[in-house]
Specification:
- With 344 residues, this protein is α/β, with parallel strands linked by helices.
- The chain has a single domain, classed as 3-Layer(aba) Sandwich (Rossmann fold).
- Helix content is 49%, strand content 12%.
- The strands form 3 sheets. It has a 5-stranded parallel β-sheet with strand order 5-4-6-9-10, with helices on both faces.
- The longest helix has 26 residues.
- It is globular, with a radius of gyration of 21 Å.
Length: 344
């Protein structure tokens, strides 16, 4: 028995350190003013996807400390924007700020993204973000799933019920409490849990899971649910007003990147409807879709996936963050020029 125990311990050590899969996340904060986020001034280590070490700021987000007196733009989003897979200076948020600093634009860009958040969270907590941070603009990173998942009551914070009410997912708090404690246990055991979980997800096909979640909506309506999109985007517009900017990410597959074309499927139908809705309702839209599609054909470099992860899938890699920062920068340059022409 003793030999088996020693062998198990050695396997855990080898698995987590020698094979480079070490992972460490801090507890989440008890302050739910802005929904779930990490405690402040904590360290995050991600060796499972990417190879990065990050630190939380005075509000518990992966960014520099927030100073209220500065002119700023805040960016809300999920794991795509939180991006604990890459170092702070490699994220598109910091790359964008560095670009503007080089041009003499005195505007700070702050990353307030948290993995697992979606559109319902941005609507519900929006007034608090505006009151606390008083931003010039609020960029909200959205995918189709961020809209559709807002209507399923298994989300981290808020969901939209059948009566179109924003409801805190109270039953989640107890589950999250145990998960929060487990996360900060001995990293060796936690990483073994994460590794096994990742293996099971991959075995069951992660893309298949995503498509099955979307299938709930397809099966029910057989076409895109315009009411859900209308509700979410109209509420975001109502909360954030002229400060709102949608940063849209299309679910682009590896094959689509390679071919430079989007398949004509339900995702594409949602994409075209969201784009048209924003145009019709004067909502600023930064669309990353075609920039990402053409990038591979121009450079031969994929915009997502890591050397220790499935290539061409998963979160934005370093190249992806470069592309997104450039797309946002290009949009603002054009927007500022257009405003100057209108005012003169």
């Amino acid at each position: 028995m003793k030999k088996y125990l020693i062998a198990l311990i050695l396997n855990i050590i080898i698995w987590n350190f020698i094979l480079g899969t070490y992972n460490m996340f801090p507890k989440t904060s008890d302050d739910l003013t802005f929904g779930r986020h990490f405690i402040s001034d904590a360290k995050i280590v991600n060796r499972i996807e990417g190879n990065a070490v990050n630190y939380t700021n005075n509000y518990g987000y992966l960014d520099d400390d927030f100073i209220k007196e500065e002119d700023n733009i805040i960016i809300l989003g999920d794991s795509i924007t939180e991006a604990n897979q890459v170092r702070k200076e490699e994220k598109y948020v910091q790359r964008l700020e560095a670009k503007w600093e080089g041009k003499g634009i005195d505007l700070k860009v702050h990353n307030f993204a948290v993995a697992g958040k979606n559109a319902a969270d941005y609507i519900y907590f929006g007034p608090k973000y505006l009151e606390e941070f008083n931003p010039e603009y609020v960029i909200i990173q959205l995918t189709v799933n961020d809209i559709l998942d807002s209507f399923h009551p298994y989300n981290n914070n808020i969901y939209i019920d059948e009566q179109s009410r924003l409801v805190p997912y109270e039953s989640f708090s107890t589950l999250f409490k145990y998960k929060n404690e487990f996360t900060t246990m001995n990293p060796l055991f936690y990483n073994t849990y994460v590794k096994l979980k990742s293996y099971l997800i991959n075995r069951s096909n992660q893309q298949g899971i995503r498509l099955r979640l979307l299938q709930k909506d397809i099966d029910q309506y057989n076409i895109i649910d315009e009411k859900k999109v209308n509700f979410v985007l109209s509420k975001l517009k109502e909360v954030y007003g002229e400060k709102l900017i949608i940063l849209y990410f299309h679910n682009i597959s590896l094959e689509e990147q390679y071919n430079g074309q989007i398949d004509d499927d339900i995702y594409y139908e949602y994409y075209t409807f969201i784009k048209q809705y924003c145009i019709n309702n004067q909502i600023h839209l930064i669309d990353t879709t075609y920039s990402m599609l053409t990038h591979f054909n121009k450079t031969g470099k994929l915009i997502n996936g890591f050397v220790n992860h499935r290539i061409g899938t998963g979160h934005l890699n370093l190249e992806g963050h470069r592309v997104v920062a450039q797309v946002i920068d290009d949009y603002f340059i054009q927007y500022i020029e257009d405003r100057w022409v209108q005012n003169n």
